[in-house]
UniProtKB/TrEMBL annotation:
Gene Ontology terms: cellular component: bacterial nucleoid; cytosol
Lineage: Bacteria, Pseudomonadati, Pseudomonadota, Betaproteobacteria, Nitrosomonadales
Keyword Chloroplast carried by entry: no
Molecular function terms from GO: DNA binding
Pfam families xref list: YbaB_DNA_bd
Subunit record text: Homodimer.
Organism encoding this protein: Candidatus Methylopumilus planktonicus
Subcellular location: Cytoplasm, Nucleoid
Name listed for the protein in its UniProt record: Nucleoid-associated protein BN1208_0872
Length: 102
């Protein structure tokens, strides 16, 4: 009887692993957009952290320091959105209190 329980547990673990892999693959297809200063700087990044596009409004090109700050803000916004999207997609697969490793 114990052996059947262990086999069932292993089967459940394999199914969970397959579901997590599928969710990770799907996340690679999702892009988010980080914004700074009402869209003067936009950064599109996949949920697998691949930068897809950076758009910079010409009005901020003359102020080097401000542009640097806006790029940081846009990246942080995109990374926060990636974390939210990832948690929404995969959070229900993890036991309560356990954080995702990525």
């Amino acid at each position: 009887m114990m052996k059947g329980g262990m086999g069932n547990l292993m089967k459940q673990a394999q199914m969970m692993q397959a579901n997590m892999q599928k969710a990770q693959d799907e996340l690679g297809l999702i892009d988010v957009e980080g914004l700074a200063s009402n869209g003067l700087v936009k950064i599109a990044i996949s949920c697998k952290h691949q930068v897809k596009k950076i758009s910079i409004d010409p009005s901020v090109m003359n102020d080097h320091e401000m542009l640097e700050d806006l790029l940081i803000v846009a990246f942080k916004d995109a990374l926060q959105k990636i974390e939210q999207t990832t948690n929404a997609k995969m959070g229900n697969m993890m036991p309560p209190g356990m954080k995702l490793p990525f």
